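Handout, page 2. Input:
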Amino acid sequence: MELLAGAGTRRERLFGFNGKKDWDELVTLDINPDHKPDVVHDLTVLPLPFPDDTFDEIHFYEVLEHLGQQGDYRAWFAEWSEWWRILKPGGVVCGTSPTATSPWAWGDPGHTRIVSAEAMTFLSQSEYDAQIGKTPMTDYRFCYKADFVPLMMQTEGRQLAFALRAIKPARIRI
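Output:
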């Protein structure tokens, strides 16, 4: 089962893993009922209306930059903890977001933050183990217990595309 979060009117799958090109049991979620999603919900309201370990994949295309505020680490980690909660073990999050150099990054009045490959570093518990005390990386393990491993992180033009796999149980050590 897959979730297309912040679906809007789009229903196409931009990329996938394991050779999948089409949706399997797609669930759409959007704040706007005019888009006719399966679930009408505001992504800033947590928890999300799904049980633990529901989805094999979650996709969001041009969505994360609309959530939270730049520098609001609590909202960032709460969102990612929620994605992790509703993913099955080994589930994958796929998404796109404009880079800081895109005219859309701050040109869209609904954009509230930049999503960067560097910010994704903070979603992997193994990065904390590797970097805390050795680099300037801030230790957010006091508020972030989820765990992802990057599968793909690339910038093409002015768009970041990424895929992260949920690691369950999390590899957190403090």
